[in-house]
Structure to design on (87 residues):
């Protein structure tokens, strides 16, 4: 309730009821996606066999290697030193 009240106070939700309705919609969407993922994995494993811990480890490593790290923005009002050779 505290999160909902803060959202209304900050203008991010029209009222508590609207915030709760949005939260429930997001929960239904989330559950639907999880069910679809479980169904996909079940079908995949039925065709190709159980996904092993080693396959998961390799997939995680490959995903991390391809990941693009976002640039961290300096907080407003802070001074940031520029790298040498840059203006």
């Amino acid at each position: 309730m505290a999160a909902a009240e803060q959202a209304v106070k900050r203008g991010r939700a029209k009222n508590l009821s609207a915030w709760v309705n949005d939260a429930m919609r997001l929960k239904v969407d989330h559950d639907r996606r999880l069910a679809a993922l479980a169904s996909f994995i079940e079908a995949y494993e039925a065709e190709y066999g159980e996904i092993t811990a080693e396959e998961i480890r390799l997939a995680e490593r490959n995903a991390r290697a391809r990941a693009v790290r976002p640039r961290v923005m300096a907080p407003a009002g802070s001074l940031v030193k520029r790298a040498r050779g840059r203006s």
In short: The chain has one domain: 2-66. The first helix runs from residue 2 to 9. The CA atoms of residues 56 and 62 lie 10 Å apart. The two ends are 48 Å apart (CA to CA).
